[in-house]
């Protein structure tokens, strides 16, 4: 009887301590090229004020009004507002100059920000506090050292990464073929594995997927994937460094070029490999599959004009894809509906299906004939804010009517009765 693959699931960290224990040196480097260099910047709690209790919510209107009041240029993106960064070009004590690149992204829903040039990030309150400090000529808060757990996770990741080998460099070709067959990637070429930097850890019989910083190409973490047999079925077990709630790796992001405008978003690293090999389209894998789309990843998806979500082959993945499309902006998203003829990308590749044809048949997330309440609300709000722009042609003979009807507007009929 053929083995049936089960959904990948997360392990409880049983394997990683065995791999890393005793092998980490005290002065281990955190990055492959820059010893000790940090790949993320956070604010010290004692430098910027932190509100007591829950963080107050902020609306997109309040964010826009604040940016205009502070003279900070911005433009609307799909999920974020784009502004010049406050942390680049050695101008930390000044507001960004005109013409500066827009590398700072502010989430329209939460107000949290991320600078993709320096990886500085924080809440909307952090952003406001930093702008205030710059008005006073005070340098921004210095980046703090990562917490002990985070630093140990990076050192452990470096240790495992150095011990892992590329699949095509295994001594025995038969071992390579058996390993590929075990993970169901016999159709995935060595060139694809090399392009995405996938390695194999013999001692754990696990594939290793790296998490590189998009700015400095430093190793921030990794994910291990191994196979377990459970009767007639096989299960894929995942473990990550750092822990899963801190693992925000868009697998394949370093391969994305600035000119790429189309993207396929998958829920599994092996699916991203299969998709890119079969179609040549830019493909990324979400760090937690169909369970979550972390808001911190939205800025990295702003450049794409078209995003196709192909998250899996079950109803849960389909429902998640529809929810994620709302976060990413419905107008630019398409969804691959799961079905027998449209399984997950890796399975489609193994079955010899035409993945390009499946992508072309993806359904638009929004229908051109359906208008949502949110769209209507934004249009009405725009008319209320810009009353003079939407007002019609003024009456010359009846100035009092201008106060009531605001003039003649195209498509409107005014009826006077006695």
TrEMBL record:
PANTHER family: T7-LIKE MITOCHONDRIAL DNA HELICASE, TWINKLE MTDNA HELICASE. This is PEO1 protein. GO terms for molecular function: 5'-3' DNA helicase activity; single-stranded DNA binding. It comes from Ceuthmochares aereus. GO terms for cellular component: mitochondrion. It comes from the Eukaryota. Coiled coil: none annotated. GO terms for biological process: mitochondrial DNA replication. CDD domains: TOPRIM_primases (cd01029).
């Amino acid at each position: 009887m053929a083995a049936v693959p089960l959904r990948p699931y997360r392990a409880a960290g049983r394997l990683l301590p065995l791999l890393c224990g005793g092998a980490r040196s005290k002065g281990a480097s955190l990055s492959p090229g820059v010893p000790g260099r940090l790949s993320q910047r956070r604010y010290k709690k004692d430098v910027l004020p932190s509100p007591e209790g829950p963080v107050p919510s902020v609306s997109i209107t309040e964010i826009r009004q604040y940016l205009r009041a502070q003279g900070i240029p911005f433009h609307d993106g799909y999920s974020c507002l784009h502004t010049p960064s406050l942390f680049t070009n050695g101008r930390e004590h000044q507001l960004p100059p005109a013409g500066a690149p827009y590398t700072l992204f502010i989430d329209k829903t939460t107000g949290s920000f991320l600078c993709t040039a320096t990886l500085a990030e924080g809440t909307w309150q952090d952003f406001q506090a930093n702008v205030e400090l710059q008005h006073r000529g005070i340098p921004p808060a210095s980046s703090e050292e990562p917490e002990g757990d985070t630093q140990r996770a990076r050192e452990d990741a470096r240790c495992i990464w150095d011990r892992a080998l590329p699949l095509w460099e295994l001594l025995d070709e038969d071992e390579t073929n058996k390993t590929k067959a075990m993970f169901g990637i016999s159709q995935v070429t060595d060139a694809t594995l090399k392009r995405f930097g996938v390695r194999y850890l013999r001692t754990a019989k696990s594939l290793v997927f790296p998490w590189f910083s998009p700015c400095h190409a430093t190793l921030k973490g990794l994910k291990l994937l191994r196979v377990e047999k459970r009767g007639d079925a096989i299960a894929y077990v995942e473990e990550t460094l750092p822990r899963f709630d801190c693992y925000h790796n868009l697998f394949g992001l370093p391969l994305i070029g600035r000119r790429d405008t189309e993207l396929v978003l998958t829920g599994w690293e092996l699916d991203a490999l299969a998709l890119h090999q079969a179609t040549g389209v830019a493909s990324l894998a979400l760090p937690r599959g169909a369970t979550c789309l972390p808001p911190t990843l939205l800025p990295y998806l702003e450049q794409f004009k078209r995003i196709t979500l192909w998250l899996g082959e079950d109803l849960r993945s389909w429902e998640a894809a529809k929810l994620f499309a709302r976060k990413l902006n419905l107008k630019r998203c398409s969804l691959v509906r799961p079905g027998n003829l449209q399984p997950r990308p890796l399975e489609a590749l193994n079955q010899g299906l035409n993945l390009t044809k499946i992508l072309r048949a993806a359904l638009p997330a929004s229908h051109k004939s359906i208008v949502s309440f949110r769209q209507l609300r934004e249009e009405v709000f725009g008319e209320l804010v810009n009353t003079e722009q939407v007002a019609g042609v003024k009456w010359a003979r009846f100035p009092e009517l201008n106060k009531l009807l605001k003039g003649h507007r195209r498509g409107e009929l005014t009826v006077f009765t006695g």
